[in-house]
């Protein structure tokens, strides 16, 4: 039982073992899970790709059935979407149930697989890579955040506490899957090979940054890595993701779109438009909500009265699952299973990760003004996804204290180096402000460029000296 924002919630390994037993084998003898009791893993084989078929769905999905076996016209109505039975009782659907949707979890707080839990076994190479990337992301966040505090960057925000969601999701996808993120998911790019220099160049707005200084820091994007550029207005990426997924469907691609939103993003109309579009068009898109408790200073209790976000899937006819977002193995397994269903069945999916935003919303925020330091500390130290995963990796004999020291030293050096280089790199030239949108610039842009150049000439002391004119 874990307490999550004032209400008790059962965390369970609830993908039913009876259902998936045929594809699961005993782990006995491979050394993992030592001293953690009995558990079972699923072999990592994905069935061959097939269109519009039920993959593991029949196994993993709990159907809600209502009795409709009486054919009498007075007993029911054939209606678009399926037969609806009549009832003489005037009954309202309850706004909520006492039993909240349980949360799929594999590793307990000590990094031990929960007995009976079912998950995709991760091999040593992948597990160590995941752990290394989670730590690198944490170090990048710490140093970039400090650089902002020193006035070297205009803005930054961290993914602290949400490293498992970032990295394990990325690891569960393939490079062909297209990402539409919110902004707290840079770990996906890190996993895909975006370099620390590229992160630094974007944040420092250098001439080498992919956006040529035209976006705020942390608004990353990469065509090479199938990662659409982050966009500030919350949730606008969700209907776009539904459209992009529909294009994959039309092209018969064996890939899906993965679209992220925060809990706050679900209060935007675009969240609802995106989900409904995807459901109706049967678009292969996985919507992922990082429910981290806060939308800047607004707690989730002021965002919605439903049982979180997961229940909204069913309202739109979208399959959904709630997952412990601080459990790397649960995130990895759930995203892999969801991806397989999304692609094979050509339908959307909603995944709600329960997690916590450990850092301030951004460098423009001081979260101690609206939440207690105890709450932050509890999540920072007691529920860190990195510590939990490390315990599991160590227990498997795949990681040592020496490797930990080396990794942290090395990552710190690389991040500092990337920052130092970016800090000294030239800014993009003024003309870049006006390029890359139109083949031939419209007259109003030509006018604006001329006017800007004249203004700089007149008031050069008010403009940055390091921007080539
Ligand atoms: C349409 C729109 N409204 C408001 C904002 C200001 N804003 C930026 S982030 C944010 C909170 C988003 O919270 P959430 O979706 O939970 O993401 P988190 O920061 O917790 O990761 C708000 C309100 C915005 N960027 N766009
Ligand atoms: Mg949030």
From TrEMBL:
GO molecular function: branched-chain 2-oxo acid dehydrogenase activity; metal ion binding
Alphabetical UniProt keywords: Metal-binding, Mitochondrion, Oxidoreductase, Potassium, Transit peptide
Top-rank lineage group of the source organism: Eukaryota
Primary residence: mitochondrion
Gene3D superfamilies reported for this sequence: 3.40.50.970
Signal sequence annotation: none
Any GO BP: branched-chain amino acid catabolic process
InterPro entries: Alpha-ketoacid_DH_E1_comp (IPR050771), DH_E1 (IPR001017), THDP-binding (IPR029061)
Domain (Dehydrogenase E1 component) ranges: 132-429
Pfam families, per database record: E1_dh
A cellular-component GO term for this protein: branched-chain alpha-ketoacid dehydrogenase complex
Similarity comment: family membership: Belongs to the BCKDHA family.
Record note on quaternary structure: Heterotetramer of alpha and beta chains.
Protein name from the UniProt record: 3-methyl-2-oxobutanoate dehydrogenase (2-methylpropanoyl-transferring)
Highest classification ranks of the organism: Eukaryota, Viridiplantae, Streptophyta, Embryophyta, Tracheophyta
């Amino acid at each position: 039982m874990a307490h999550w924002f004032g209400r008790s919630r059962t965390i369970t390994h609830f993908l039913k073992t009876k259902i998936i037993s045929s594809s699961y084998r005993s782990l006995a003898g491979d050394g993992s899970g030592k001293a953690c009791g009995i558990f079972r893993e699923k072999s990592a084989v994905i069935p061959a790709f097939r269109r519009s078929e039920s993959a593991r769905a029949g196994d993993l999905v709990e159907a809600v059935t209502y009795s409709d076996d009486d054919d009498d016209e007075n007993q029911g109505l054939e209606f678009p979407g399926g037969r609806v039975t009549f009832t003489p009782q005037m009954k309202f659907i309850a706004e909520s149930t006492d039993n909240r949707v349980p949360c799929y979890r594999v590793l307990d707080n000590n990094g031990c697989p929960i007995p009976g839990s079912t998950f995709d076994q991760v091999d040593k190479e992948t597990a160590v890579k995941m752990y290394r990337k989670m730590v690198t992301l944490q170090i990048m966040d710490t140093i970039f955040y400090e650089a902002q505090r020193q006035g070297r960057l205009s803005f930054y925000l961290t993914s602290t506490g949400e490293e498992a969601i970032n990295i394990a999701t990325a690891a569960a996808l393939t490079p062909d899957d297209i990402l539409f993120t919110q902004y707290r998911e840079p770990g996906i790019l890190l996993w895909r090979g975006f370099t620390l220099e590229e992160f630094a160049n974007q944040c420092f707005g250098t001439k080498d940054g992919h956006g040529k200084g035209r976006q705020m820091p942390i608004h990353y994007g990469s065509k090479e890595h199938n990662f659409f550029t982050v966009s500030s207005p919350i949730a606008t990426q969700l209907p776009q993701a539904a459209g992009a997924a529909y294009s994959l469907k039309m092209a018969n691609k064996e890939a899906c779109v993965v679209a992220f939103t925060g809990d706050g993003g679900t209060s935007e109309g675009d969240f609802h438009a995106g989900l409904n579009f995807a459901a109706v068009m049967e678009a292969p898109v996985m919507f992922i909500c990082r429910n981290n408790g806060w939308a800047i200073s607004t707690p989730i209790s002021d965002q919605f009265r439903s049982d979180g976000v997961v229940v909204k899937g069913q309202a739109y006819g979208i399959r959904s699952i709630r997952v412990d977002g601080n459990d790397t193995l649960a995130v990895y397994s759930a995203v892999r299973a969801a991806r397989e269903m999304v692609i094979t069945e050509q339908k959307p999916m909603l995944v709600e990760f329960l997690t916590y935003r450990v850092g301030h919303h951004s460098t423009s925020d001081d979260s101690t003004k609206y939440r207690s330091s105890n709450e932050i500390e509890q999540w920072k130290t007691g529920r860190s996804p990195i510590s939990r995963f490390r315990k599991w990796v160590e227990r498997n004999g795949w990681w040592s204290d020496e490797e930990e020291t080396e990794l942290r030293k090395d990552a710190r050096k690389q991040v500092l180096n990337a920052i130092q280089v970016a800090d000294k790199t030239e800014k993009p030239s003024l003309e870049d402000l006006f390029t890359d949108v139109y083949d031939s610039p419209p007259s109003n842009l030509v006018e604006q460029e001329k006017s800007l150049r004249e203004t700089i000439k007149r008031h050069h002391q008010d403009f940055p000296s390091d921007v080539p004119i």
